[in-house]
Amino acid sequence: MEETPKVLRKIIHIDMDAFYASVEQRDNPDLRGKPIAVGGSPQGRGGVVATASYEARKFGVRSAMPSKRAIQLCPAIIFVKPRFEAYKEVSRQVRAIFERYTDIIEPLSLDEAYLDVTIDKQGIGSAIDIATAIKGAIRNELGLTASAGISINKFIAKIASDMHKPDGITFIGPSRIERFVSDLPVEKFHGVGKVTAEKMKNLGLHTGGDIKKLSEQELRKHFGKAGSFYYKIVRGIDNRPVEPEQETKSIGAEDTFPYDLTKLEEMELALEKITETVCRRLDKHNLKGKTITVKIKYSDFKIITRSKSFSDCLNDHNSILAAARELLEKTEPEGAKIRLLGITISNFPSLLSKGNGKCAPGQLNLF
């Protein structure tokens, strides 16, 4: 069985609180203290919520919720048009704060990242103290709040960051991990959507402790390759390192959803968020690519990919999103149960021809 590393890592997962909505409330005093939704439609005619403020969440409004439903739950809700360039700029500022403490940073999106502070730049030593300092800097310098989860691995740190939102900080030490995971409801496992959670419950698996009673072979029988991950994680084993972004032959991002997406508008919103991450990574490496690939995983774990190549290079948000939507729509996704979407850009002339290709380098350096 895979062992826990002898040198325990110190991992922090930072998650900005209601990021888009909080930026809007910070920049527009008239929105402060009010229920707002970034994205969506005030007439309830299509569109879904990208992010809801905590005032709106009290009424049950959530991300990826159709506008019509958000209005039913909270008639006073205010819809705000997204400002992605503003969010990217704040994300850059947050990244600069992280870099004061470590260079081992793995961004997951504009508003969350893993940090490995096993050895930190300032020699602070305590991951709790570092997370506290980061949260304080984000509050004092940017006027925003973030929640932090701290542990010895990525899985536990990510779950911990969600435990005391907003503006929370949660530490799960080595001695607490197995008990913590044993008591954890299966729907709280990162990457377990509604369909998988329901399948687990039908098998009598309601908590991590229940999963621990099954052998790895039994788990693989029911859940495929994911079964091996579940087997390890309920024992507190997650040796995935925090991986700073590096130049590769392809750059992409994907997202596993907390519940299966069945409506095209939900899928398109998800693609928009994934495109942000892809663009940020392309810009960071000064790359443009000619081939885009969309990955789709269904509730039954079937995976398909669809690709398209272009004569000109892509690295801008609108072009990539339009191409991704086109590829998705060709699969006739309406009504399908989709649990994961991903976008990858490849075929970089700047790599293939050592910088002499037709693609000009990107201009932005985003977190």
Automatic annotation (TrEMBL):
Keyword presence, Nucleotidyltransferase: yes
Q: Which PROSITE patterns match?
A: UMUC
Q: Name one GO cellular component term.
A: cytosol
Q: Which GO terms describe its molecular function?
A: damaged DNA binding; DNA-directed DNA polymerase activity; magnesium ion binding
Its Enzyme Commission number? Answer: 2.7.7.7
Q: Which residues bind Mg(2+)?
A: 15, 111
Biological process (GO) annotations held by this record are: DNA repair; DNA-templated DNA replication; error-prone translesion synthesis; SOS response
Keywords of this protein's UniProt record, alphabetized?
Cytoplasm, DNA damage, DNA repair, DNA replication, DNA-binding, DNA-directed DNA polymerase, Magnesium, Metal-binding, Mutator protein, Nucleotidyltransferase, Transferase
Give the catalysed reaction(s), semicolon-separated.
DNA(n) + a 2'-deoxyribonucleoside 5'-triphosphate = DNA(n+1) + diphosphate
The role this protein plays is: Poorly processive, error-prone DNA polymerase involved in untargeted mutagenesis. Copies undamaged DNA at stalled replication forks, which arise in vivo from mismatched or misaligned primer ends. These misaligned primers can be extended by PolIV. Exhibits no 3'-5' exonuclease (proofreading) activity. May be involved in translesional synthesis, in conjunction with the beta clamp from PolIII.
Q: What is this protein called?
A: DNA polymerase IV
Q: Which organism is it from?
A: Flavisolibacter ginsengisoli DSM 18119
